[in-house]
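Hypothesis: this fold can be encoded by more than one sequence.
Test: take the structure tokens below, design a sequence, compare later.
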């Protein structure tokens, strides 16, 4: 848990422009930042990551208020925005940089991640291609990638507009 009760999760869902825009719509998400996770070079640039030789995945750092949106809810939303059995490909985007993944910084989050992952797996015959790993490294992408679809409303996105509306209207129902 970080200051003020805000928590972090890092989600790779293909092109980070659409994944970030999707999560910005979700009530309880307080900040997003796009970048590169779990590669093997120092301070990668977008051009370097684009070569698929750095080992990084385009990833969104999601900061959220767990009093408004639980990790379980955010992960359920994440699975609605990805094809979880597609390896290194989301939409028309292909390459290891577009792989899907859940990268955590708090080991206490792992039971929730495992629970949602197992629930999702029940919907598919083939194994999920979504990585579940501790976050090893994260580097923020260049400024022009941050909030890209806000700056470029007609910019490329592998996600349909209807998914953004779905995210805007989604509300977590809490028991009790």
């Amino acid at each position: 848990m970080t200051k003020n009760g805000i928590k972090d999760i890092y989600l790779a869902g293909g092109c980070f422009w659409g994944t970030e825009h999707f999560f910005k719509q979700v009530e309880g998400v307080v900040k997003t930042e796009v970048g590169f996770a779990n590669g093997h070079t120092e301070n990668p640039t977008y051009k370097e990551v684009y070569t698929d030789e750095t080992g990084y995945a385009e990833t969104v750092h999601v900061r959220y208020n767990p009093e408004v949106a639980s990790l379980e809810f955010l992960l359920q939303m994440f699975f609605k925005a990805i094809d979880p059995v597609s390896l290194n490909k989301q939409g028309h985007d292909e390459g290891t940089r577009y792989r899907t993944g859940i990268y955590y910084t708090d080991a206490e989050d792992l039971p929730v991640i495992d629970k949602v992952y197992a629930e999702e797996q029940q919907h598919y015959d083939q194994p999920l291609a979504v990585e579940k790993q501790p976050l090893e490294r994260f580097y923020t992408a260049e400024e022009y990638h941050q909030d890209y679809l806000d700056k470029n409303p007609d910019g490329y996105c592998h996600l349909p507009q209807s998914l953004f509306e779905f995210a805007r209207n989604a509300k977590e129902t809490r028991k009790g």
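The CA atoms of residues 85 and 125 lie 9 Å apart. The first strand starts at residue 7 and ends at 13.
Hypothesis status: open.
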